[in-house]
Amino acid sequence: MTGRAISGACVPYLPRGVRLHDDRVRGIRVLLAPERAVQLDAVGDAILSELDGKRSLAEVVLNLCTRYDAPAEQIEGDVQDFIRGLVDRRMVFLACAEGDGTQEDAA
Questions:
Q1: % of the chain beyond a pLDDT of 70
Q2: How is residue 27 annotated by DSSP?
Q3: What does the alpha-carbon distance between residue 2 and residue 22 come to, in Å, rounded to a whole number?
Q4: How many Cα atoms within 13 Å fall on the side-chain side of residue 90?
Q5: How far apart are CA 58 and CA 21, in angstroms?
Q6: Which value, to the nearest 10 degrees, does the dihedral of the CA atoms of residues 24, 25, 31, 34 take?
Q7: Which residues contact 32 (CB under 8 A, 6 or more apart)?
Q8: Which backbone phi and psi does 57 adopt, to 5 degrees?
Q9: Residues 43, 49, 50: CA angle, nearest 5 degrees
Q10: 47-61 pLDDT per residue, tens
Q11: Half-sphere exposure of 55 (CA within 13 A, CB side)
Q12: Phi/psi at 9 (nearest 5 deg)?
């Protein structure tokens, strides 16, 4: 993984005005935000379906590892990259304890 890592203690959540939606006409899941929409693939849908505003990023990763019987390193990398992209686009927010936000990778 490259770039900034999100602390596993942070709680990712969908901000007000952003929601998951089933587009029944096209048969797809989308993430809707004011004047924006992102078509989700199965991975994105699985990750966003875990966000409830209560579970930490580490708990989300653990739940996905259990559900898909996949290695934590692989799941964590995918989740970190996906969430970071949505945070940068202000479609996902993070609730982090003071000083427990994102860190730059040493590599």
A1: 88
A2: T
A3: 32
A4: 6
A5: 25
A6: -120
A7: 18, 19, 20, 21
A8: -60, -40
A9: 100
A10: 999 999 999 999 999
A11: 14
A12: -80, -15
> DSSP states of 32-97 as a string?
EETTEEEEE-HHHHHHHHT--SSS-HHHHHHHHHHHHT--HHHHHHHHHHHHHHHHHTTSSEEE--
Using one digit for the tens of pLDDT, what is the confidence trace for 67-94?
999 999 999 999 999 999 999 999 999 9
For residue 13, give both structure tokens.
């959540």
Phi, psi of 76 (to 5 degrees): -60, -40
Residue with tokens 């004047």: 35
